[in-house]
Each structure stands twice: as C-alpha cells, then as structure tokens.
Automatic annotation (TrEMBL):
Residues 7-137 form the MATH domain. This is TD and POZ domain-containing protein 3. It comes from the Eukaryota. CDD domains: BTB_POZ_ZBTB_KLHL-like, MATH. It holds the Pfam family BTB. SMART domains: BTB. One of its GO terms (biological process) is protein catabolic process. Residues 329-396 form the BTB domain. InterPro entries: BTB/POZ_dom (IPR000210), MATH/TRAF_dom (IPR002083), SKP1/BTB/POZ_sf (IPR011333), TRAF-like (IPR008974).
Length: 435
C-alpha cells in the first residue's frame, strides 16, 4: 500500500536572473500552487532580486494566497532554501508552528547576499544564469517523509547578440571610430576613442530605444594573439538611465602592449579584436510549470508567451539527468582530457554517423568507446546535451561556430540548423577602418 503524502515541496527556477530589471522593494511572484495535503490551501513565493529593503540582499518569502480555501488560520512548518544545480542546499532556514491567515499571510523570509549569489558564489548559485529556490511545507511534527513535488519555471526573456569587432591599424587610430548596432529594442553606436598612444576607451552612444525597453547591458573583452579573452568590464542600463538621454559612457581603459598582444593568430599585426555582447529586454516574462501537482495560472501584466507540456518537460528533465549522471550508459566518448558516458541507442537515433559506428562492423561497436580528438570538451558537452534534450545552453558566436562543426561532422541536421540560424542572426560584418 502506497504511503500517504505528508507535505508539499515547491521548486522554482528563475532563468536569466542576472538580467533582472527590478529595483529594491520590487518583486516577482511564482505561479500559485495548491498544497492539497494541507487542506487545499494556495501558496506562492515572492522573490526580491534587489532585496525587500536592503539592495545588498536577495530575499524571498512564503505567502498564503488571499483567495485561499481551508481554515481562516492554518498552522504549518516550512523550510525555505537556495539550491545548487543538483538540488542540494546552499543555504536554508526552517520555521516551525507558523500561523498563516488568509490575509496578511507573509512568513519569515530567507535571504543571501547579492555579492555571494552574483559574484563570489555565482557558479554554485547561478548555473546557466538560473536561480533555484525551494519551499517545503508540512503540518505534523518532525520533517515530511514523502512530500508531493511541484515545480515551476519563470524566464526573463532577453535578446542577446554577440559579435567580434575587428579594427585595423589600431596603433595609428584616431578618436571617433564608430560601429553601429541595433535590435528590435535599441539602436546604439560604439565609439572607440584614443586617450593616449597606449590607451583606449569605448563609449556607447544611445541613438534610440523602444518605449517598452526595461533593460540593456553591454560587456566587452579584448581577444589576444592566443585567442584568449581578457575581460574589460560590463555595464548595465535600466529605464531611468536610458530616459536621461545623451551619450552613455562606458570606460574601458585598455593598455596596448604592442602589436604582439593584439595580433591575430594569422600573424596580422596592428589589429584590435573586441569581443562584444549586448543584451536587451522589454520586460517580458515567461511563466511555465512542470512536474507533478497543480499550479494555477495567475492574473498578471507580465506576458506569458507559452506553456510547455507537462509530460514533455518531465521527459526532458529525466533525459538530462540520465545524460549528466551516465545512468546505465553502455559506451563512452573520449577526449584527451575527459570521458563522457553515453547511450548507444540515443546517439544512434539522433545521428546517422553514430548509428553506423554502433551498427556496422566498426571498432566503436565492440571496444566500448569512441575517441574524439578534434573537438573541445565544452563542444562535446553542448552536442550531447542537445542530443539528449533538444536544448542549447547559453550560446555565443564562438561556441556556436564550434558546435556547428560538430553537428556537421556527426550529421545532426536539426542542431546544424539551429546553429546556422543563431550565427546568421548574431553575425555583424567586421568594420575595417582605413586611416
């Protein structure tokens, strides 16, 4: 006989959280969920990315909805926590015997410092720029043995563009070199100015922007002769910044240590390569639900563009877990530095090349591994994630080029098309400066 549910666990993921435009005291609410094991009461979480009163803290609260069924007052225990990508606790707080009324139904909050979440602990708190929080509610003594799991996802929709700006004859560069860029929400010029013989600064000249824009950010890195990126800083702009008008200045002071530092790998000299990325958003938020349990739609001015099928979301999560944990894998992809446990059937269905390897009389069929020496570990990981789940992690121009080559090698047509579309959208023709 199956054991009875004795609590409710709600897991909420917020994607692209680092590009959130909310101010201190402004919150985003999770979808409402029903805890049917707690007299069908309704609940939600309220998250304050810039803090409720303290801008240096990220905090969230448990809230009982006003239109809630059940008794006027219900006594519960609850635990609020921040999770890592594997669902382990990063920080948590437990409260016992808290009385929730139908009105004024906020509980004790949990918080963590913004510096820890967005800077020093970013790899733990924000894998793929996704914050994951959890709330468990129960009514009996002790801790729940078998809580019902409910999960939801909120996505800050953004437009992300990346490009490489190639500037020739940089040592003789005069001030005022411009390059124009735009998307659906904003148009701006990048202006490279010479401050001295060995120093440059980059200004952003905002030309125009759509009246719905909420957020704009820009970051830049210098690409050296080894192809390595040297971060040169980033800047964010919110609605008030943009409405002030005039030139928005980004000070990127970069000492030029001679042509060898900045030369291309094909031995072109006196060339400056700037790896640039800008992100814009009009405030659209997509709210999805997945997992078991019931999540109610909430009336909101935020735009809900789509809802994934519950079954599809659960399947994607299961396949992702299967790939990352290598559950019952029957072969491996090997590079000089890493081993990827994989499943022949899944690779064969997605790639004709892998299918031939594992079906015909080839060494890969029997030796238990496939050697790959011409692809980077990160590229193989991205390819496998797509093979298993049909999803792509945060894409940039450089890794999209490498992923396109991998898709072409293994004849993964849909992945090749996705990469091609991304590259066409992201590509900006290099600007050649003649002095």
């Amino acid at each position: 006989m199956a054991s009875k549910m004795d609590g409710c666990t709600f897991v909420w993921e917020i994607e692209n959280i680092s590009h959130c435009w909310l101010s201190t005291g402004e919150r985003i609410a999770s979808p409402v969920f029903i805890a049917d094991v707690l007299e069908d009461t309704k609940w939600s979480l309220w998250l304050y990315p810039m803090g409720y009163t303290d801008k240096n803290c990220v905090s969230f609260y448990l809230r009982r909805e006003e239109d809630c069924t059940g008794p006027n007052v219900i006594k519960v225990n609850f635990q609020l926590s921040f999770l890592d990508k594997n669902g382990s606790f990063l920080t948590k707080e437990t409260v016992f015997n808290w009385n929730f009324k139908k009105r004024n139904a906020f509980a004790h909050f949990i918080h963590a410092s913004r510096e820890k979440i967005f800077v020093s602990g970013k790899d733990e708190f924000l894998p793929n720029d996704t914050l994951m929080v959890q709330c468990t509610i129960w009514s009996k003594e002790g801790t729940p043995v078998k809580p019902k799991l409910i999960s939801a996802r909120t996505v800050y929709k953004i437009n992300r563009r990346s490009f490489v700006w190639k500037i020739y004859e940089v040592n003789a560069l005069k001030s005022g070199v411009r390059n124009k860029f735009k998307d659906d929400l904003i148009e701006f010029d990048l202006v490279l100015n010479a401050m001295s013989s060995f120093s440059r600064k980059l200004d952003i000249d905002i030309i125009s922007f759509h009246n719905t824009i909420k957020y704009f950010s820009f970051k830049m890195a210098v690409i050296n002769s080894k192809g390595e990126k040297e971060d040169s800083g980033a800047q964010e702009y919110f609605t008030d910044n943009l409405k002030k008008g005039g030139k928005q200045v980004l000070f990127f002071n970069k000492t030029l240590r001679g042509s060898k530092t900045l030369a291309l790998q094909d031995h072109e000299s006196d060339v400056l390569l700037l790896d640039c990325e800008f992100v814009s958003s009009n405030g659209t938020v997509v709210r999805e639900h997945c997992g078991s349990g019931v999540i109610l739609p909430k009336s909101t001015t935020l735009v809900a563009e789509r809802e994934k099928s519950q079954n599809t979301s659960v399947l994607i999560d299961a396949l992702k877990f299967m790939y990352k944990d290598g559950i019952r894998s029957d072969t491996e992809l090997r590079t000089p530095t890493q081993i990827f446990p994989v499943h022949k059937n899944i690779l064969s269905v997605r790639s004709p090349v892998f299918r031939r390897m594992f079906s015909n009389d080839m060494k890969e069929k029997n030796c238990g591994y496939v050697d790959i020496t011409d692809l980077e570990d990160d590229t193989i990981h991205r390819m496998l994630l797509y093979i298993y789940t049909g999803t792509l992690e945060d894409m940039h121009f450089e890794n999209a080029c490498k992923l396109y080559a991998a898709a072409d090698k293994y004849d993964i047509i849909s992945l090749r098309s996705r990469c091609s579309a991304f590259l066409k959208e992201s590509y900006a023709p290099p600007m050649r400066v003649k002095l």
